[in-house]
Specification:
mainly alpha; three-stranded antiparallel sheet
Length: 88
């Protein structure tokens, strides 16, 4: 079943997405998605998955948008994840 067909059966975008679905979500081809965001995926068994929340955060950073749900005092889980991945 294609990514578009799977999406048509869902009420909303899934919390975890394969590359084909995540590419649709981000509005780019799968090749472009993997080139730009391939390293952000998390391996689970034979799949690599991307989080919708993570992709939303990438878009917010790209357009210099402050996440509405984040208080200035809250720990940003995405930033903590990035620090853990990069060791900074």
């Amino acid at each position: 079943m294609s990514a578009v067909a799977r999406l048509s059966e869902m009420p909303d975008w899934p919390a975890r997405m394969t590359a084909s679905v995540a590419a649709l979500y981000m509005g780019v081809s799968q090749t472009t998605f993997l080139t730009r965001f391939g390293s952000c995926g998390v391996k689970e068994g034979g799949n690599t998955l991307w989080s919708r929340a993570q992709l939303d955060r990438i878009v917010a950073e790209q357009f210099d948008l402050a996440p509405a749900s984040m208080s200035v005092l809250d720990e940003d889980p995405y930033e903590a994840w990035k620090r853990q991945r990069t060791g900074r």
